[in-house]
Every structure is written in structure tokens, then in C-alpha cells.
Amino acid sequence: MNNVPQAFSEQTFQNFLNSCENFLFDCDGVVWNWPSEIPGSVEFINRVKQMGKKCFFVTNNSTRTRETFSQQLKDFGVKDITKDEILSTAWVLAEYLKSQNFNGKVYLVGNPAMVQELDRLNIKHNGLEEHKDYVFNSTNYNEIELDPTIKCVSVGIDYEFTFQKMIYASSYLKRNDCIFVATNDDSSLPVPIPNIAIPDAGPILSSIEKTTGKKALVIGKPRSTMWEILCKVHGLDATKTCMIGDRLDTDILFAFNAGIEKSVLVLSGITKESDMQNQDRKKLPMFYADSLGDLLKFI
């Protein structure tokens, strides 16, 4: 991987395109800044698809199922898209627990998409609104009722995260036989308004890790778990694959960790061009561009 990220020229882009058989796209900050498409992103994806390139969408967003993601991509205009081209962390979480022959019950700090993916594989879990009536007041410890069948705490983004959920998740993790898994540890969501910050799953996860002193197994980017699944199902070659994302610490580092030779950073989401200065080389892309739409002039 080149240690000095380059902007594309027409020649370098053509060489790059000819060397790629597979494209992995992040969604938030690459295809869309929800709810709006990033201009030109869908047209770029459709053009590379027309060239016979395989396209996959690899996202840390746990708030949608694969079916929902594929329908949203269709609605934006992406052609010939199926759920098999989608890897979302809600789906990967359920598949991971299945692969581990997990047969207990999950305490879920998360969202409805995670519920749907666990239900799909008949993995038992708590309800998202469980314990909402319990309010800790520093004296009512005896009102905390723990379920003896909980054997896993799973954490994703939870728009209704509460102190009560932190208490229950942390208490279950005091058990030696309770595993700890998270969809992702991204710090924040990409938003189109510069003075607004929206936390992602990372701050939620950190609060539970800090309370318990335990570290979760994180299955999303930058860990290579999703790439391993893609390789197993689709037989992809890392030397002929490119990862395109908007974050250095997840997308680009994911490419490095997975052994994917080519990566492109787009500046249409979280990362600014100045953020590439003084970065660990593992987090540096081979190329960068303002957006996918900015690359249309080379096709």
C-alpha cells in the first residue's frame, strides 16, 4: 500500500480500474449522507457494475437489515442489487453467534434491525424496552433482577440507550460465562450539519467497557471479520479488490487488516483531507477523491 495517498489522474485511475475486479463500498458518507444521495455516487457504482466489476456494500451501520439496505440502494437507483451483496453488522453479529453454536440468551443494547437478525436465526434475546420502568436511585440495588439465562451481551447503536441498560449490561458481564460482542465501535455518525455531533455505537460500548473493565469482540470494521465472510462466500481475491470508504480508522484500516491492496478515501463523509497528515501508514489510503461522483470524469 502506498504510504503517500495520491489524488487520481486520468492515467492512474485507468490503471487502478483495470486492476480491480471487486469493489467494497461503505454506505454512510460514501453512497449517501442520509437521507440524501451524495451526488454522482450511484452513477459511479452503476458504471463499474456495467463494466463487469463485482460490487459489495460493507457497512458498520447496525440499524438496518440486509433486506432494508438492498431496498434503499435500489430506491437510490443502484441497479441489480441483492441482499447477498450487503454485509451489515447486524447480520454479521447474528451469523457470528450462530457460528459459535451459541444457545443462551442475548442481552441486547441495540436497535430493531439487530432484533430482526437475531430472530431470523432463532437466537433468544431480551426486549429492547425491558427494564425501562426501573430507575436507579443509589439505594434500590435489590430491585435489579438478572436473568440467569443471559450468556451474551451484544452492543450496537441504541438511540434509546439509558443508565438502566448500562447497569444491566455491566452486571451480566460480571459473569464468567457471559461473552461480550459489539457490532462496531465508531465514535460518531456522519451528519450534513457541521455543528452537530451524533454519537455512534463506540461511546455506548466504551461506557460498558469502562464499567466492567472488559473489552468486547468487535465484529465490524476495522476488524477483518466481514472480509473473511466475503471470501468464504464469494471467493474474492484481495489483490484484485478495492475498499472505498470515508473513514481512516474503520474503512482504510479495515483494508489494511484484511490484506486488501487497494483503498480509496472519499472526502464526502467524516474525514477531511488534512486528517491524513501524520497518520499511521495503516490508516492511509492508496488514493483519495472528493467523492465517488468526482471520479465519473475518468470513466
Structure write-up:
Its cofactor is Mg(2+). This is Phosphoglycolate phosphatase. It comes from Brachionus plicatilis. Belongs to the HAD-like hydrolase superfamily. Its EC number is 3.1.3.41. With 299 residues, the protein is an alpha/beta fold. It folds into two domains: 6-60 and 224-298, HAD superfamily/HAD-like (Rossmann fold, 3-Layer(aba) Sandwich), CATH 3.40.50; 91-218, Rossmann fold (3-Layer(aba) Sandwich), CATH 3.40.50.1000. The chain is 31% helix and 18% strand. It is built from nine helices and 16 strands. It has helices at 10-19, 41-50, 66-76, 89-99, 112-120, 163-172, 201-212, 225-234, 248-258, and strands at residues 6-7, 22-25, 32-33, 36-37, 54-59, 86-88, 105-109, 124-125, 150-155, 179-182, 188-189, 198-199, 217-218, 241-245, 262-266, 287-289. Strands 1-16-15-14-2-5-6 form a seven-stranded parallel beta sheet, sandwiched between helices. A five-stranded parallel beta sheet has the order 8-7-9-10-13. A hairpin with an 8-residue loop joins β11 (188-189) and β12 (198-199). The longest helix is centred in the C-terminal third of the chain and has 12 residues, at 201-212. The protein is elongated. The model has no long low-confidence stretch (mean pLDDT 95).
